[in-house]
Design goal:
Thiolase_N, EC 2.3.1.16, alpha/beta, Thiolase, disordered N terminus, single chain, globular, Peroxisomal Thiolase, Chain A, domain 1
């Protein structure tokens, strides 16, 4: 959808995130319940904006591992944990890695439609307490009809990343070079204070825990292949395997939240908008390649906005794997100097359900820091899905 001048605009008032922690038993948030982690960010958003939480029409939150401590509609329990009035509702959505970017879309759609005056889009993931894939409980999640359609069977995301690297002729050296640059950009951003204003520290963690400033392409070249095994080699005998933990995103814990409001509400409540949601789109693509949905999603959202790739001043493209971003760049022609300018998920981390709101938080700040007008965020998602959002700095 593109928002024309006759439509009610949806404005981003503020956005905040926690530092991202290792999603492991020794990670900084391993002892924090995911609802409490989420509540921390919601409370921080209220404190930063000075908004009365009673005016929030809905809290829409993303979470991927919706089982155990992250089940039962975590958005509702997090807003209560943050001290919001009981009258404030909440709902938890799942579009896999793009869940909290989808939450931003739903919040903006609600405002544009006039259903909401004020909404919060947020997300949380505690991969230390809810390990990746826990929600499947070892069961087949796709069913027999999908199995019949894709007769060779679905593949894990890491294998999809390998297929992408091969199809787009991305060498191991290029993947490692890109990944090392992600760490160096993120480390430099922290050193220069560029993340300070967007982060609400929790416990003793004050910076993102998985950034390794000393990382180089040469050190990454020594890592072993992550997804090559006899089963996949037999199925894909022509693949030149090259994906490692070093050119993939890690597992992480974190939370982020974005306050969205109508123009009328911003004036009535004395809020100052930072950006306008200009256009948004979702797209599907081949579920075997799986992570390539960001290519048609980018094309779709640009067409809806009436913009070209060269009109975009900064990009946030989720670094699920280096091959995903580099294949996207080859197809779109985007200037890599404008992409993830302060590092991406390979360095900062990828707390699944929180990543969409985390990237939006970063995108708003990057637009302001560069003085750019338009920013584009796009995320690949399991099943061949992708969300794309264009915001305009105001």
């Amino acid at each position: 959808m593109v928002i024309n001048s006759q439509s009610q605009s949806a404005y981003i008032i503020d956005a905040v995130r926690t530092p991202v922690a290792k999603g492991k038993p020794n990670g900084a948030y391993a002892d924090i319940h995911p609802v409490d982690l989420h509540a921390h960010t919601l409370a921080a958003l209220v404190e930063r904006t000075g908004i009365d939480p009673a005016v929030v029409d809905d809290v829409i939150s993303g979470a991927v591992g919706q089982i155990g401590e992250q089940s039962g509609n975590t958005a509702r329990w997090a807003l209560l944990g943050a001290g919001f009035p009981e009258s404030v509702p909440g709902v938890t959505v799942d579009r896999q890695c793009g869940s909290s970017q989808q939450a931003v879309h739903f919040a903006a759609q609600g405002v544009i439609a006039g259903a909401y005056d004020v909404a919060i889009a947020s997300g949380v993931e505690s991969m230390s307490r809810i390990p990746i894939g826990s929600q499947f409980q070892g069961k087949d999640f796709a069913g027999s009809r999908v199995g019949q359609r894709y007769d060779h069977g679905l593949v894990p995301q890491g294998v999809s990343a390998e297929l992408i690297a091969n199809k787009w002729d991305l060498s191991r050296a290029r993947l490692d070079e890109f990944s090392a640059e992600s760490h160096q950009r993120a480390a430099r951003a922290w050193k220069d204070g560029l993340f300070d204003s967007q982060v609400a520290p929790i416990t003793h963690l004050r910076v993102d825990e998985t950034i390794r400033p000393e990382t180089t392409a040469e050190t990454l070249a020594g890592l072993r292949l992550a997804f090559k095994d006899d089963h996949w080699v037999e199925r894909y005998p022509d693949v030149d395997w090259r994906v490692t933990a070093g050119n993939s995103s890690p597992v992480n814990d974190g939370s982020a939240a974005v306050l969205v409001a109508s123009g009328e509400a911003t004036e009535r409540l004395g809020l100052t908008p930072r950006a306008r949601v200009h256009a948004f789109a979702v797209s599907g693509d081949d579920p075997i390649y799986m992570l390539t949905g960001i290519i048609p999603a980018t094309q779709k959202v640009l067409a809806k906005a009436g913009l070209t790739i060269d009109d975009i001043d900064v990009f946030e493209v989720n670094e699920a794997f280096a091959s995903v971003v580099l294949a996207w760049q080859k197809e779109t022609g985007a200037d890599l100097g404008k992409v993830n300018i302060n590092g991406g998920a390979i360095a900062i981390g990828h707390p699944l359900g929180a990543s969409g709101a985390r990237l939006m938080t970063t995108l708003v700040n990057n637009l302001e820091q560069t003085g750019g007008r338009y920013g584009l965020q796009v995320m690949c998602e399991a099943g061949g899905l992708a969300n794309a959002t264009i915001i305009e700095r105001v």
